Amino acid sequence: MRDCDLLVALDVDGTVLHHDGHLAPAVLDRVRALDALPHVHVVIATGRSVLSTVPVVEQLGLAREGRPAVCSNGAVTVRTDLTNGTGYRLVDVVTFDPAPAVALVRQELPDVLVAVEEIGVGFKVSTPFPPGELWGEEIVVPDEELLAHPATRVTFRDPSSTSQEFTELVERIGLHGVSYAVGYSAWLDLAPEGVSKASALEQVRRHLGVEPHRTVAVGDQRNDIEMLTWAARGYAMGQAPAEVVAAADRVTGTVDEDGLAEALDEVLAELA
């Protein structure tokens, strides 16, 4: 059984990387040890855009031709392409109409910052975001252009609010026709309805021919809940909110304690 294909899905921020972007040597060592096994598929599954995912894949030494990665909380799936200059090729893109949800949120927070992802470019934004929060080009555009086309992801940011206030806002207004996740700061991501890291990983699993009971996932935030439930073994990082811990099978150390290395040690010993 240990020789059967195994899929290991890893969140990035707060899991692979520390919140300051640091990659711990212990984590890098365990990821590469797993990736060296021919029957193990290490797959990045992140809320990051494609542009900010590719450098992480490269930093981990995972940039092998055809390797899948799940980006934008499941709305965008890519495979490594070492021939076209971008480092990736698009495999699946799911979009939705962002206008109704943006109107609802703005009724409650008229000054909220809004960003709409532009694959391979960056983001169209209503107002510039705090420095360092968005990867790629930020293009300030009027609302008619911001909301004119179907989107893979819409991000709301209110530097004066808290994560709890955003959670209460979502529960109060009701958001229909979309999937959503509140970040650890006052950050709200919208994705197409029914789309999550889990939905994209299920397609990856089937393509790779991995059996459902041979799946592992590690994550730390609310956008990881579906992925942790989907996996046969889900690990929550030690700093994860209570609802994320509840969705997991096991809890590992915090990101500051290199908890991912601890979890992958278990995977190497018990499953791989």
Overall spatial form: globular
CATH evolutionary superfamily of the largest domain? HAD superfamily/HAD-like
Would you tell me which CATH topology of the largest domain applies? Rossmann fold
CATH architecture of the largest domain: 3-Layer(aba) Sandwich
**Domain module count:** 2
Roughly what is the average pLDDT, rounded to an integer?
93
The total of helices stands at 9
CATH class of the largest domain: Alpha Beta
Tell me the strand percentage band.
25-35%
Largest beta sheet: what is the strand line-up?
5-4-3-2-1-12-13-14
Indicate the radius of gyration in whole angstroms.
Answer: 18 Å
Main pleated-sheet profile: 8 strands, mixed
Number of strands: 14
**Class from secondary-structure proportions:** alpha/beta
End-to-end distance, in Å? 9 Å
Low-confidence stretches: none
| Strand/helix succession | EHEHEEEHEEEHEHEEHEHEHEH
Report what the structure shows.
This protein is of the alpha/beta class and 272 residues long. It is built from 9 helices and 14 strands. The protein has helices at 25-35, 50-59, 99-108, 143-146, 163-173, 197-208, 225-230, 242-247, 259-270, and strands at 6-10, 40-45, 68-71, 76-81, 87-93, 113-118, 122-125, 137-140, 154-157, 178-182, 187-192, 215-219, 233-236, 250-251. The protein has an 8-stranded mixed sheet with strand order 5-4-3-2-1-12-13-14, with helices on both faces. Helix 1 (25-35) packs parallel to helix 9. The radius of gyration is 18 Å and the shape is globular.
